Every structure is written in C-alpha cells, then in structure tokens.
UniProtKB/TrEMBL annotation, chain A:
One of its GO terms (biological process) is attachment of GPI anchor to protein. It comes from Gossypium barbadense. GO terms for cellular component: GPI-anchor transamidase complex. The keyword Endoplasmic reticulum applies. Residues 1-37 are annotated as: Disordered. The chain crosses the membrane at residues 47-65. This is GPI transamidase component PIG-S. Keywords: Endoplasmic reticulum, Glycoprotein, GPI-anchor biosynthesis, Membrane, Transmembrane, Transmembrane helix. The lineage of its organism: Eukaryota, Viridiplantae, Streptophyta, Embryophyta, Tracheophyta.
Automatic annotation (TrEMBL), chain B:
The keyword Signal applies. It comes from Gossypium barbadense (Sea Island cotton). Residues 1-22 form the signal peptide. InterPro entries: PIG-T. GO terms for cellular component: GPI-anchor transamidase complex. GO terms for biological process: attachment of GPI anchor to protein. Keywords: Membrane, Signal, Transmembrane, Transmembrane helix. The chain crosses the membrane at residues 565-586, 641-659. This is GPI transamidase component PIG-T.
Length: 604, 660
C-alpha cells in the first residue's frame, strides 16, 4: 500500500506540478492547450505497477496449472502406433525350412524344386495375418549318391544318402515307419520333410513328428508327386490341416494371462433315478496329463472336476420309436445347456483372466434315457456330444441301466466304468482339439487325395503344436497391439485421467516383450517368441484393466473450472481491464507530451 | 494310439460282461469314496414359549483330504474347497442375520442359541494357517472372494479400519484370527441362493425343499450361517479334510387359526402347527445323497417339565398330539443341575416319498406355559449422553435369577465368582477413553481393579484400525446388576468417508458377552445312533455360553454436503472483491480525475450542481467558490458521511432509549 500511495503522491504532485506551471506561462506559449498537450513526460510508475500485477498474474498461471495438474505417466503413444502399424502392414514372418526327399526318382532336383515352389506360392497366396518365410531344399536319393538342390543348402546336409530306401515302406506299419523316418531326419530339428518313395502300394501318411511320406506307384509322374508335396507342406504343416471357416483362427481359447482351466463336470440330471460318480483322478493321470504337458508352451493348463446333481437339460427331446430312444436334434443345442440349473461356476482357483473351458458329461434321467443326438442329416451322432466355441463341450452319456433288457439295477451310487470313461475322454480330447481349431478326424482329405494323419498319444502331434505356437504368437501379438491401441486411444480422449506409474511400466514392458517376440519370431526361435508374446498380451491386459483407470478421483475439466472460476473470472477481468486502461492512458499522455514537444520545437 | 484311431465312440457297444468286470474292480473305490465325502441334512423344530416356532436347518458336508491337489470334487462343493486351499483357512464362520435373537424368551443357555444366535448383519471370522505377515493379505482376498460368492458387500471388511484381531477373548482363541462385522448389511434371498448352491441337492430335494423364500423372510429372526473347519493343515503334514456346516435358523410365527377354532375361549393356548402350514411345503423324500436325513422335534427342559413329562410317560403325553409317529425318542442324559430333561422326537425322512410326503404337525390340547433356560446374566447395551460431541457406552448385565441353582452349585466355598468375558469393537470415529472405564455392581461404583481380572485394549488409530477392548470380569455370584460404562468422543469424518445415508447414524457392532465357566451342551442317550447324526453330536460339544448385545446407532455430526462448493464460492468472491478494490486504488489518479471533472463542470454548469455547491458553501459559512477544489470536495463528502453516521447513531440511541 505504501508503494501505491507513494506512486499516487508522486504522480499527483507531478500533475499538480504541470497544473501549477500551466497558468504561469500562458502568454509565452499561448497555443498551449492542456487538453491536448502536456509539458512533462507522462509517469511510467502506474503503468509499470499495473503491468507488474498483470505479469505476476500471468506468471502465476503455470504454477496454478502445475498444482491442479493430475499425474499422467507419459505413455509411449508413438511406439504403440508403430507396433500396430507394423503388425498390420508387414505380416509376421516365421522362417520355415522344407525338405523334400525323392527316393527312387531320377530327375533334376532343381527342376523339382522349382515346380514345388510354384505350387506352394499358388497355395499360400491367401493368408492374411501371419505368413511364413520359407526355404525349400530338394534331395533326390539315388541310393549311392544324392542330388541336392540347391547344392549349398545348410539344412539338407543332415540327411545321409541311402538311409531311406523303398524297402522300409513295404511294411504296413505306419508307426514303425514314422519312428524310422524320425531317426533319419533327426526328429528334433525344425525342418519339415516329405519323403516320396517310388514302388509299392500307394499310401500317404503324415507322421507324429515333422515329416510326412508318400509311397507312389512305379509308373507315376514326378510332377503329380510335386503337387502333392506342395499341398502337404502348405495345407498340413503350415495351416494345421484345418479348413477355412470351421472355427476362425483368431479365437484361441487361452486366457489373457496365458492360462486355461479345464473344468470337467459330471451332471446327474435326476439323482432319484441314479447317481453316477467317476474316478477322475485315474483318467487325469493317464489321458489328460500328457496333453497338458504337450501344450505347455502355448498355455498353462490346470484341471478340476466336480459332480453336480439335479441338473436337467433345458431343451426337449422326443421319443423315436425306430431308434427306441429319445432324440434331440442339432437345432435344440443352443438350449441344451441349462444355465439356471447347471451351476458350473467359475473357478476360484483360477486367476481373474484365465479362460475356463467347461466340459460336461450329461447323465440323463430315466425319463429321457437313452438320449441321442440327431445330426441335421438324420444320422445319430457317434460321439453323442457337441462343442460350443470358446465355452467348452458337452457329452451325453447314457448309463447302462436305461438300456432295454438290461439286468443291471442301478444302486444308490454308481461309478462310470473305466472303459466308458476313457472313451468319453477321447471324445473330450477331440473336442478340445476342435476348440483349438484342429480336426478331430485322422484323415486329411484334399482334391489330390487323402493323407492319413498319425495321432500322437499326447493328443497333439509335433507339427500341430508348431502350428498352435505360431498361431498363438500371432494372436497374442495382434491382441496386444489392439489392447494397447485402445488404451492409448482412451488415454488420449480423456485428458484429465490419472495414469499411474504402474500402467506406464506395464505398457513399456509389454511393448518390449512384443518387440522381443517379433524379433524372436523372425529369427525362428518359436518357444521364446510364444512365451514373450503371451507375456506381452497379459501385460497389455493388465495395463488396460488396471483398477486405477476406473478410479473415482478422476474428475473432469468442468469440475476444475467450476472450482476456480469464481475467483479467477472476476479477478482476471479486473487485472486485464486495468492494464488496458492504463495503457490507453499512457498512450494518450505520451501523445500530449509529444504534441507539446513538437510545438516547442517549432517555436524554438 | 487310442485317441484318434477310435474317436468315433459308440458307447452302446460296451457289453454288460465288460461292465460288470469294471464294476467289481471299482467296488473298493466306491466304498472308499463313500467313506470320504459325506453329506447330511437335518431339521430341528422347537416350540418357543412366546407362541413361536424355531426351525433350525443343519446341513453338513465333509470333504475328503485333498490327496489329488483338491481339484476333483465329488460331493463337497468345489467353490468352498478351492476357497480353503487358496487362502489356507483353518476355520471360518460367516453369518447373515436379519432380526435379533430374543434372549429373554427364546433362551440363551442351550447349544442352539449360543452358537446360532448371531448379531444382525454380517459377521465373519476366520483363522488362517499362514505366517503372521500374510494374514492380512489373505483376509482381504478372502473378503473379496466371499462377497463375490454370496452376493454381499463383505468386501467392505477389507479395509483395516473395519476388522480387528481379538487376542484371547474371542472363542477360537488364537493369534491368527480376524474378526469383522457389517451391522447394517441387508440380508435377503440373493444371499440365500448362493448358500443353497453349496448343497448337493440345492433346494430341489430333501429337507431344503422347505426353504420357501416368502415364509422364511416373514419370520422374526433369520440367520444363515456357514461354518467350515479344515481339520488338517498342510504345514503339519496330515490332512483329514474339510467339514462344512451350513445352518439356517429361523423363528417363525405359526398361524394360530386352527387353535382359535378349537379352543376359542382359551387365549393362552399355544398355536398348533404343521410343516405345511409354516412353510407352505412338504418334504417329499430325502436328498438322495444325504446319509442321515432326519427331522427332530425338541421339547426343551422347561416345556417337558411344564407338561409333566418324565422318562416314564413321554409316550402317552396328555398335552399335545403329534400327527406322525416318531421313529425314535431320545431322552437327555440327566445332568446334575436340572431336574427336568429335554425330549427329542426323531423322524426319518427316508421312509417318505413323493406319493406320501412327510409332514409333521403338533396340536396342543391344553395351554402350556414355560420358560427357556437363560444365560446367567442378561446383557444389554445402550448409549448415554446427548449432543454431537461426547457420549458414553454402557453395557449392563442383569441377573436372570433363572440360573441361581447353577451358581450355588458352582460355589464350593464362600468365595463364589462368576466370570464374564466382554469383547467390544468400536470403529475409529468413536474415540473411546479407556481410562474412563467404570464398573458398577449392584448400582454401587466399584474399583476397576476389584472387578476386572484381565483387560486387553488396543486403541483405535484414525482411519487405520478400530479400537478393541477385551475384558474379563469377575463378579460375585449373588450379583443382581452390573454395568460397565466407558466414555467416548465422536470423531469427525472426512466428507468422502460418510456413508450415503449419513444422517441415519453409524453402527457400533455388537459386543460379545461370554460366560466361559458355563457350557451349553445336550447329551442324549442311546449313543449308537448319535455317531451318525452330526446335529446331535454338535449338541454334545461343550461350547461356552455366549450372547450378543444390541447394535448401537451413534449419530455423528453430519456436514452440509454442498459445503465445499459454498466455501469455495464465498472465499473466491471475497478474494475477487479484495483484488478488484486494490487494483482500483492502484489505478486511480485522483488529480487527473479532478481535472477531468473540472473540465466537465466548466463545460456545462448545470443548474442543480451549481445550486448544490452554493448551498453547501452557505452551510459551511464560506464564500461560494466558482470552481471546486479537490480537497474541499473530499471534505464535503467526508462531512456528509459523518453527518449520516451521526444520524444513524442518533436513531439507534433513540431506539435503544425508547425501548428500554
């Protein structure tokens, strides 16, 4: 205040000064008009003061802005965008190596190679997302020496000439042949081999490992064999022998944290008629454990089971006199699962984002037994079960007691015979394969002929696991990119959302893992690529579903405005107006002074 | 191999011969399995003195030891087994209660009331088998899981300010126990449905068929409990499984129309009832999986004494009539401290089927009045004081006179003492002054150290932990009344800590009053069948007599919830005014304004201002100045102001003088 009053004083004294001077010299300068001129320089003090207030005000704004700012970790938006564009534009490339071995043929390996390559390119043109970067080597085994093409291929060198002979294929035991080829091709290498052998009965088999063989008649054409070789390489080894449109490849029933819980339920529709129990532990050890171990790189699978009672189905079935059984048709399937009464329950043991696949064995009550599933073509389903993608599978098991003229009398508590249980679980494993998109049949039929697929005791053969692992990597990376993309869109659209350090850390780690997965995939390290891709996906999901994103303390800009405007609106109006007015006054006064000066100059 | 070579399975192809072979092979497993997992369903009906009926459903499943990582469940509910394994729970009890147990008329000295009378709302306690520093994390996860499982807001027990760690007064005395209550939780059918889902037959068959929602929730008291004990712990190496007890206790009012018809003149006759009249349903056979499935009718000691029933004549009793013949009758083993004996009628549900449903009815012939056996002291709790600042909690214990026989029996020499344990949890915003604890015995203040044998106090921390008080009182046997008072300050809460309905008040959870020297147990004769019935073997267990006090409602000062905005607006306006005036002063150049005014006045000398200035000049006895000088004008304004102030002051003085 002291400053202000001083300023006022000095200012007013100056003005008084000019006032007092003005009447003294009215005659010396008669043209002096106090309205238009002044003799003294206008004071800068007041202007300086008002502007200092204005500037301190303006200077204060950044501090205020800083103080009301909410914490936002700077997310790497650009990197997220680049990841998704990278995944969208250039497809993921998995380097593969194919090896075709011709035994008993006498033709130029380079020519064969060219014809197979052209067939392969014809077949692979339509894979949109994840494709393969393959190399092919062809060996023609002439017994004593080999013709290799290309001659300097590092891959085919492992093959020793003369180790595969036509004699080995004469016997009809496919499993033995498979084992023999596995030892020849060095079963563990990541190389897909097809052996074409001339002489013998025609047969085409895909083995448990990464190879297939084909026995052709003596007089058959080499070109025809090349077409078939290309087909098995593309359709079976790359695409996993699945048909387009059966189940879309993008759907992998794997939880965001890379876990699957297989929940097996035995449903006793009406325990008044009979109650069945099962010996699940035994089946778990013998049938499920090998499969779970085999799928280890793709997903972490756990198994649990329960028995439920009073669980009627929700759809109707009709008595069919000809079949002497109750029949439900495929159009009833959407209503079969009774979500009111089948309290299958999500598992507490499973983490929040694990995928739960429900497998249910339905034991019908006496009123609807035996219960059969009729296919649309009128036939009766042999498995008596069905799957629901991403949910699981159901099998109807008719107990012995409801069959006609059976002397079996159900007691209070029965156990499902182990033979039945094994059959049931084979169906379940087939259903599980179907949920992953594989066929449950062991024959791959194609335009050019049938391929027998040798089943593995682990449920999935090695080449199938390879396919799953690529597909899993590809799916994970895409889903990671989409999740991160939507997170970045969300964050950018809500400028006043708090983003904690954890989210930023997770996003960063996820991006790193995704990059690692990409580089590993292109260098051919599938296992670590699959592992880091699933890590990338789970981290991205963690970031997206972080509880702090949904926190209550997120408040909008309107709220901030409502809190601060009662102060800042009136004050800033005052300050700005004062500054403007002072500026205007100063300019006016200065003009007056200049006018006087000009006049004085002209006078002198 | 097997998998793909034979995927087309025709289940019907399996011959009977093969099947039988398998059947024989699995016979042993079958027996073993039956031994492992068991389920029982029982219902106990008990007429209460005040014309009401107590129905106590008791379902017990015992799970097998988890040999196969506990992933495979046959009879035991999967959810509970996974819960126990995940959080390594040794013992847990969760209860949902609506209404208050009336200790005076429904009794407090039998196993039923001491273990099934619960405080209103949700009560949860759990004992964990984890290292000390993991217990709180386990508790938090457990509350979240349970709230998901039972559709209740148990997750509010997650914050450390809502649960406590009882040291020794809480019955499962152990350091790993956590205890929390939600007194204002509403209990309804959405909590019952998930509870029923844990039963193998749900409410589709067996005794649970009686659980008709409208008649259940019409009752006076409704308590649904889940108690689980994991007998083996993995740290000890032995694992003998989990026992899950699910009980539902309801007190219902039977429709007394039938009784009025028969004995219209007699008002005091007990209402006759039957299962179908109470629940509107009948039991059409047992749940197939339940091993014992039975209904009991309990006539307690007082009732059988009033009826004149003794061990000789209970077959042909004159005062009531049962609509079904009991399969067995159990007599209580005679105890030293009561003359009369309880009688238990047992009905086996197995015998009944859908064509012949089970329905038991009881028809009274003569009016009967009796009293239930009560706790040694009747406890009640109330608030003292008024205002929004301070208050006091008082726990009063009143002798019920009923158990005087006990007391004299317990006193061997002259110094007879009655031990009472009090466990009280108060939320942090009730700031208890523990030094203000005072004890009154027979309305006489007594020194705290005389009466209190042992005390454990853990003071509350703001927003961190509740205050816990555990007291052991030693009262003389002949005591009539005893009271504990303790003062507290009402704390202030932050605006976001208030509940949605803040003006309703805040609940102080029930205190637990237990009498460790008294054990409620009922031992029934004929032991061979007792092993089979989990309900009766539970009655045999010696459990200390316990009672819960009322829930208190403390009104706290509630702010005007729009206050923050009002404060912001007012402060901002004041600041803005201040700023504006300061700027105005800064900017104003008095001299220049004067000049401006002068110029203006010179330009147009209006009639009125001239006249006014002349007038003022005359008033002040000065000569008229043609042009105002700035100081004179300001002094003019000042004098005018002074005049005004004097006028107002004079008016005020006159006003004061006139009215006084």
């Amino acid at each position: 205040m002291a400053e202000i009053s001083e300023a006022q004083d000095s200012d007013s004294s100056k003005l008084l000064d000019s006032d007092s001077k003005a009447p003294q010299r009215p005659d010396s300068e008669p043209e002096f008009d106090p309205k238009l001129m002044r003799k003294s320089k206008p004071g800068l003090k007041r202007l300086f003061l008002t502007f200092s207030v204005l500037f301190s005000f303006l200077l204060g704004f950044p501090f205020l802005w800083k103080s009301v700012e909410i914490y936002r970790f700077p997310l790497p938006f650009r990197e997220i965008d680049s990841l998704s564009t990278q995944l969208r534009s250039d497809t993921l490339l998995f380097p593969l190596h194919f090896h075709a071995l011709f035994v008993g043929f006498d033709s130029d390996p380079d020519r064969l190679r060219r014809s197979i390559l052209s067939e392969i390119t014809k077949l692979t043109s339509q894979n949109p997302k994840c494709s393969d970067n393959y190399t092919l080597s062809v060996t023609v085994d002439l017994g004593s020496r080999c013709l290799r093409g290309p001659t300097s291929s590092p891959h085919s060198s492992s093959y020793q000439c003369g180790s595969v002979t036509a004699a080995a294929f004469v016997q009809n035991d496919d499993v033995a042949v498979d084992e023999r080829l596995a030892s020849v091709f060095g079963g563990k290498t990541k190389e897909y081999s097809v052996a074409v052998v001339k002489g013998g009965s025609e047969r085409a088999v895909v083995g448990k490992y990464r190879h297939a063989w084909m026995v052709v008649g003596d007089g058959s054409d080499v070109g025809m064999a090349a077409v078939k070789v290309a087909e098995v390489l593309v359709k079976v080894f790359i695409n996993g022998g699945r048909e387009e449109g059966l189940i879309r490849n993008e759907f992998m029933p794997v939880g965001a944290d890379g876990k699957i819980v297989l929940s097996f339920n035995l449903l006793n529709a009406d325990p008044h008629d009979w109650v069945y129990d099962w010996d699940f532990e035994k089946i778990d050890d013998t049938l499920l454990t090998p499969m779970i171990e085999a799928l280890g790189p793709v997903a972490n699978i756990s198994v649990e089971s329960q028995v439920l009672y009073h669980t009627p189905k929700a759809s109707f079935s009709y008595w069919n006199q000809k079949l002497e059984s109750y029949v439900f048709s495929t159009k009833d399937l959407p209503f079969f699962v009774n979500s009111n009464e089948w309290h299958l329950d999500t598992s507490i043991a499973a983490g929040g984002r694990s995928k739960i696949l429900q497998f249910a064995v339905y034991v019908p009550s006496a009123k609807e037994c035996p219960l059969l599933l009729q296919l649309p073509n009128g036939e009766i389903s042999k498995t008596n079960g069905f799957i629901s993608p991403m949910w699981g599978g159901v099998i109807v098991w008719n107990p012995q007691g409801c069959l006609k003229d059976s002397e079996f009398k159900p007691s209070a508590k029965n156990i499902i015979p182990i033979q039945d249980l094994e059959n049931m679980f084979e169906v379940f494993i087939g259903q599980f394969r179907q949920l992953f998109g594989f066929k449950s049949l062991n024959v791959y039929t194609n335009a050019s002929g049938d391929w027998n697929l040798l089943p593995s005791e682990r449920g999935l053969t090695e080449w199938e696991l390879d396919v799953l692992s690529w597909q899993h990597t590809c799916f994970n990376l895409h889903s990671c990119a989409t999740t991160l993309g939507s997170l970045s869109r969300l964050v950018q659209s809500l400028p006043r959302m708090i983003i904690k350090d954890e989210i930023g850390k997770q996003v960063k780690l996820s991006l790193e893992a995704a990059k690692l997965a990409l580089s590993n995939a292109s260098s051919g390290v599938y296992e670590s690529s699959a592992a880091s891709s699933s890590q990338a996906r789970s981290l991205a999901e963690d970031a997206f579903f972080d509880p702090s994103i949904m926190s209550v303390s997120y408040y909008s800009f309107e709220h901030c405005f409502a809190v601060y405007s009662p102060f800042f609106l009136p004050v800033s109006m005052h300050v700005v107006l004062a500054a403007l007015r002072e500026l205007k006054r100063y300019k006016q006064e200065k003009a007056k002074y200049l006018a006087w000066k000009a006049k004085a100059n002209t006078a002198t | 191999m097997v998998l793909l070579q034979r995927p087309h399975i025709l289940l019907l192809l399996i011959g009977t011969h093969q099947f039988l072979q398998c059947w024989i092979a699995f016979g042993s497993v079958n027996e073993e399995g039956q031994k492992q997992a068991e389920f029982s369903e029982e219902l106990l009906l008990k007429p209460l003195p005040d014309h009401k009926l107590l129905a106590h459903f008791h379902f017990q499943s015992s799970g097998p030891p988890s040999t196969s990582n506990g992933c495979h469940h046959h009879l035991f509910p999967k959810a509970i087994s996974q819960l126990v394994q995940k959080f390594r729970i040794k013992e847990m009890e969760l209860s949902f209660t609506k209404g208050r147990w009336n200790y005076e008329s429904w009794g407090g000295f039998d196993p039923l009331s001491s273990s099934n009378a619960k405080p209103p709302g949700v009560e949860l306690w759990a004992v964990f088998d984890v290292p000390q520093h993991h217990i709180d994390a386990s508790w938090k996860n457990l509350t979240h899981t349970l709230s998901g499982l039972f559709c209740a807001s148990i997750n509010f027990l997650e914050s450390t300010a809502t649960y406590s760690t009882p040291e020794w007064s809480f019955p499962p005395a152990s350091g790993n126990v956590r205890y929390g209550t939600l007194p204002c939780e509403a209990v309804c059918t959405e909590n019952l449905t998930p509870w029923l889902k844990l039963l193998p037959c749900r409410d589709k068959a067996g005794i649970a068929l009686l659980l008709d929602r409208p008649s259940l929730y019409r009752g006076f008291y409704h308590s649904q409990q889940l108690h689980l004990t994991s007998t083996g712990s993995s740290s000890e190496g032995i694992d003998s499984g989990i026992i899950l007890e699910q009980t539902l206790t309801v007190v219902l009012q039977p429709n007394s129309e039938m009784a009025i018809e028969v004995h219209a003149s007699e008002k005091h006759i007990q209402p006759s009832w039957s299962l179908s009249s109470i629940f509107g349903k009948q039991v059409s056979g047992r749940c197939v999986l339940a091993k014992p499935s039975s209904v009991y009718l309990l006539l307690d000691r007082g009732l059988s004494a009033a009826n004149g029933l003794t061990s000789e004549n209970f077959w042909s009793n004159p005062s009531f009539e049962l609509s079904a013949n009991p399969d067995r009758i159990f007599l209580e083993e005679s105890s030293s401290h009561s003359k009369s004996l309880s009688i238990l009628y047992m009905f086996q549900v197995e015998k009944y089927c859908e064509s012949e449903p089970f329905d038991i009815g009881l028809m009274w012939k003569v009016p009967v009045a009796w009293l239930c056996q009560q706790t040694p002291l009747h406890a009640s709790r109330f608030l003292m004081g008024s205002g929004n600042e301070r208050a006091a909690i008082a726990i009063s214990l009143k002798s019920t006179q009923f158990t005087e026989g006990f007391m004299s029996a317990n006193s061997k020499d002259g110094s007879c003492e009655l031990r009472v344990d009090v466990f009280q949890v108060v939320p942090w915003y009730v700031k208890v002054y523990f030094h203000s604890l005072r004890v009154f015995v027979d309305q006489q203040p007594r020194a705290v150290s005389d009466i209190i044998e042992k005390i454990h106090v853990s003071p509350s921390k703001d927003k961190m932990s509740p205050g816990v008080m555990e007291v052991v009182l030693k009262l003389p046997c002949r005591v009539n009344t005893a009271a504990l008072t303790i003062e507290f300050d009402k704390g202030f809460l932050r605006i976001d800590e208030y509940l949605p309905d803040a003006n309703q008040g805040f609940d102080i959870p029930s205190a637990i009053i237990s009498f460790p020297n008294f054990h409620a147990s009922m031992v029934f004769l004929e032991d061979d069948s007792l092993n089979k019935s989990p309900l009766l073997s539970k009655f045999q267990e010696k459990c200390p007599v316990m009672s819960y006090t009322e829930v208190l409602l403390v009104p706290l000062t509630t702010p005007d919830f729009s206050m923050p905005y009002n404060v912001i607006t007012i402060t901002c306006t004041v600041f803005a005014l201040y700023f504006g005036s300061v700027l105005n002063v800064l900017q104003r150049s008095v001299a220049e304004e004067e000049r401006f005014l002068k110029a203006k006045a010179a330009k147009k000398t209006g009639r009125l201002p001239l006249l006014l200035s002349k007038l003022s000049a005359k008033l002040r006895g000065r000569r008229l100045e043609p042009l105002h000088s700035p100081p004179s004008s300001s002094s003019f304004i000042n004098s005018k102001l002074v005049l005004k102030v004097i006028l107002v002051a004079g008016l005020a003085v006159g006003w004061q003088y006139f009215f006084s």
